[in-house]
Amino acid sequence: MIAIGLTLLGVALIWYTRYRPKQQSDEQNGLDEEELKAIYNKTIELIEAEQYFLNKSLKISDLAKELSCNERYVSRAINKFSSGNFNKFINSFRIEHSKELLTGGKFDHYTIEAIADESGFSNKVSFYNAFKGDTGMSPTQYRALKQAK
């Protein structure tokens, strides 16, 4: 009896994977490139104006709610017009902010952990990895290079 059930389940799974509906394009979902670009631009404006990137627990659903927009549309806009997914997109704002803190003079006495915290990163490791991936150097190296100039 169990074997028959498993066989039927397997057949159903094979049928579903073969005949399931295909993913629709943005245009088929009612969005054209211009509308996605508008969502992307509004997202950037909101993030910069309100400094949402400083929120360590920021989620795409938070931005979508603030924009009164569908979360999937915000995600598509970010994926289409930025250099990566939501996390990479938000981290790019955090990294730019951290660069200002690292070279601003006013924050020279801050530790790297404090700069990471002030920039919206939840820990030093994620800050270090994102910073190095973006700039090719560690935050400490970046600070030393900028202070030497």
TrEMBL record:
It holds the Pfam family HTH_18. It comes from the Bacteria. Keywords: DNA-binding, Transcription, Transcription regulation. Residues 41-145 form the HTH araC/xylS-type domain. One of its GO terms (molecular function) is DNA-binding transcription factor activity. Gene3D superfamilies: Homeodomain-like (1.10.10.60). The keyword DNA-binding applies. This is AraC-type DNA-binding protein. It comes from Ekhidna lutea.
